[in-house]
């Protein structure tokens, strides 16, 4: 009995395999991946794929909000570099960080413009799942507030570049690497 010759294309792979393949692509490639077919779109929009936003450091605020919205309720790894031409440019980033900080597990934040009170407000939010944070400023900054609202029980590692504290920081009690 002869079997008809079937071409098994990549679309014929199980969704779990396609998801595993997509994990090894950049965020830009994941956007393209989701545009190939309906099957790829379903895989490409899986929240698990968007939980690691470290490979796209120069995100625009709209893109960042859109991608973080896809991830919920998953935890997020975020690498963000904010380079401003004027200090008001930091405001939309601060608003998004304010909204999502409670879901961020790993944060790398580099602010290459003057610090703003809006960014202070964002970093005053509690960070219940944050395990690692690296916060860097282009100018010297003194925090006159408790970072992460003093609540970051999972925080193990904290790196601060050009940042000092003016008030006691209870969150440092859990930090192993400072």
UniProtKB/TrEMBL annotation:
Annotated F-box domain residues: 7-53
Lineage: superkingdom: Eukaryota
Residues forming coiled coils: none
Pfam families (alphabetical): F-box-like
SUPFAM superfamilies xref list: F-box domain (SSF81383)
SMART domains for the chain: FBOX
Protein name: F-box domain-containing protein
Organism of provenance: Exidia glandulosa HHB12029
């Amino acid at each position: 009995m002869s079997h008809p010759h079937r071409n098994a294309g990549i679309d014929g792979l199980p969704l779990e395999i396609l998801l595993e393949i997509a994990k090894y692509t950049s965020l830009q490639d994941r956007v393209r991946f989701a545009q190939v077919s309906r099957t790829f779109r379903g895989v490409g929009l899986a929240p698990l794929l968007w939980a690691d936003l470290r490979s796209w450091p120069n995100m625009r605020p709209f893109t960042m909000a859109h991608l973080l919205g896809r991830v919920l309720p998953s935890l997020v790894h975020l690498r963000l570099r904010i380079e401003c031409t004027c200090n008001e440019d930091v405001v939309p980033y601060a608003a998004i960080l304010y909204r999502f900080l409670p879901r961020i597990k790993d944060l790398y934040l580099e602010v290459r413009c003057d610090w703003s009170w809006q960014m202070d407000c964002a970093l005053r939010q509690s960070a219940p799942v944050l395990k690692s944070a690296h916060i860097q400023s282009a100018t010297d900054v003194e925090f006159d507030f408790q970072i992460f609202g003093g609540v970051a029980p999972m925080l193990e590692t904290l790196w601060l570049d050009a940042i000092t504290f003016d008030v006691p920081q209870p969150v440092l009690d859990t930090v192993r690497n400072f």
